[in-house]
Amino acid sequence: MLAASAISGGFSTSLPMESLINDFVEKAGGTKPALFYGAIGGATAFASLSALYKVAFKPTKRKTFKDYQPVTEEHYDVAIVGAGPSGSALAWYLKKENPNLKVLLLEKKQFPREKYCGDACATIAQKHLRRMGVLQELEEKKEGHYAQNGGFVSPCGNFFIGNSAKELNLGTTATVISVKRKVLDEKISRAAKNQGALLTENTTVDRAEFNKDKGIWKVECTYGAEDQQDKKKVTYFARCFICADGAPSRMARQLNLIKSEPQGTCSRQYISHNKLFQYDGVVFYPRKLLPGYCAIIREAGDGELNFCTYIIPGGPTTNDELPKIHDWIMKEYPQVAKSLGPNPEAERMKSASLRLGGLSKGETSYADHLLVIGDAAGFIDPLTGEGIQYALESGEIAAKVLLEGFKRQDLSAQFLKKYQNLWYSEWGLEFYWSMKMSLLLYRFPIMLDAAAKLIEKKGSRFLAEWAEVMTGTKSKTWFLRPDVWPLIMLEVVAQVFRNLGVLKN
Q1: Three-state secondary structure call for residue 311
Q2: Domain count of the fold of the chain
Q3: Are residues 378 and 362 in the same domain?
């Protein structure tokens, strides 16, 4: 029947195939040439292959809410594991745009709780914090410090310090504000709660299972503080489940969306009552730490600093060497040791893992009624270690997609793929080039030496643009501009002659 239909060109007939053939042959002269049989066979084969293709590649029917069995359990619309910046931002945006949605925010710890990183919130992060009212509160209570002046020190010791905020006409603000994560994360989560999300602290998610018949998640939890003896089991149900549980991403790995281990690591050590460091923020590039870096960032308060070290994959230093390299830089690396002094009043070093550059091969950030956001999906720039802004951005993008999904009553994987497409279009290629650039700098550190000299010649305005690129406000294609890349290469040549003693610094 498939072959007959294909030959007939779509017209309807009740004649058997042999009768059609004989009739055609009779009109053609009474013979059945080989060419004719070849045409019949080719048409039959084509029609058969076409039918098989349609069966094999027929798209799976999307299940909308009306296709599922009735949900008898009391449930939330969205359950979010992790009340850090990404999870709390998602909750805030969902409730702001649709107050009728029931949003559950599950946090393992009790706020205020620690998170170890550099504490730097760049321009894009500030945009979200201002929308939530968090930035205004930080400014009012003086719990954040805007980095008005700073710069970087290259592997050979070339450096430039300038005032990028002045060059960009930012007034009393800046491209970066440092806020202790113990303060920041609590304020973002409280903003989500004030917007109407249900925030449940001291709640560890043990297991999550999707009921394909009802289109609903069963989320099994343990409620109680870490040192509490009488913990209790609690079960929630939700139409959509969100993994926002940080770089280790225990839930996303348990559900087999994320399969790799975190690749990098970072340290944090607060220094009190420091009077030696005169700037708001300086990044250092010790040769043995490349493609990673370390930084000193001024916090709010009198003389308090954050000394942090980032190990990024690709260089000679491995993650398990973090305590050793952190201590060596602090005590023996000249530029840092001079800034911190011989006996700094320092807390114990603390560390955290980093999942860098987005998804690895075989991983995905979506499935039926499921998304992975923030650090759990690797939204940390491999070149800079910046992650807070991408966490907040991913929360907003996920909210837009989910709001549309609930409107359509469609949270299928086919629809939620839109989330991955959106975040990838925003920063996926940026992460790719960041990884390439970080490895390039490791192999050719002279490029950082040359860049420092170029910034010294071009001044604070050029430094301000450099800072915008490194904080994600501008694309890294900025380095390919004709007024940037050729000048860096000229400085590379000049640096070679300086190293040979032909030119003076």
Answers
A1: strand
A2: 3
A3: yes
453 within 8 A of 156, measured Cβ to Cβ? no
Only one residue has tokens 């304020």, namely 187
Helix (H, G, I), strand (E, B) or coil at 151: strand
Please tell me the distance from the alpha carbon of residue 136 to that of residue 69, in angstroms, as a whole number: 46
- Residue 150 within a domain: no
- Within a domain: residue 17? yes
Note whether 435 and 484 are same-domain residues. Answer: no
Secondary structure (3-state) at 503: coil
For 66, 205, 266, the CA distances from 249, given in Å and listed in that order, are 32, 12, 17
Q: How far is CA 159 from the centre of its chain?
A: 30
Pairing of strands 198-200, 103-106: parallel
Question: What's the alpha-carbon Rg for the chain, to the nearest Å?
Answer: 30
Do 103 and 242 sit in the same domain of this protein? yes
* Of 149, 197, 470, 444, residue with least CA distance to 315: 444
| Residue-range definition of the domain harbouring residue 26 | 2-56
Domain boundary among 443, 459, 488: 443
Could you please report the per-residue DSSP string of 318-386? -GGGHHHHHHHHHHHSHHHHHHH-SS-EEPPPEEEEE--SSPPTT--SEETTEEE-GGGGT-S-TTT--
Domain identity same for 44 and 101? no
Q: CA-to-CA distance for 294 and 282, rounded, in angstroms?
A: 9
Residues 106 and 50 occupy one common structural domain: no
Residue 387 to residue 471: CA distance in whole angstroms: 10
Contact 452, 415 (CB under 8 A): no
Pair 436, 454 in one domain: no
**pLDDT block averages, 10 residues each, the chain of length 505:** 34 40 45 47 53 48 88 95 98 98 97 93 96 97 93 92 74 86 98 98 97 97 89 96 96 96 95 94 95 96 94 93 96 95 95 95 97 97 92 98 98 98 96 91 93 88 84 86 91 89 74
Q: Nearest-5° angle of CA 106, CA 365, CA 103?
A: 30
Phi-psi region of 171 (alpha: psi -120 to 50; beta: other; left: phi over 0): left
> CB under 8 Å to 7, separation ≥6 — which residues?
20, 40, 43
Residues 258 and 383 in one domain: yes
Residue 343 lies in a domain: no
Reported pTM: 0.86
Selection from 154, 149, 148, 122 nearest residue 488 by Cα: 154
Name which of 206, 209, 196 is nearest 73 in CA terms. Answer: 209
147 in a structural domain: no
The dihedral sign for the CA sequence 147, 153, 154, 160: positive
What distance in Å separates the CA atoms of residue 358 and residue 249, rounded to the nearest whole number?
Answer: 13
The amino acid present at 170, given as its one-letter code, is L
Q: Are residues 106 and 74 in the same domain?
A: yes
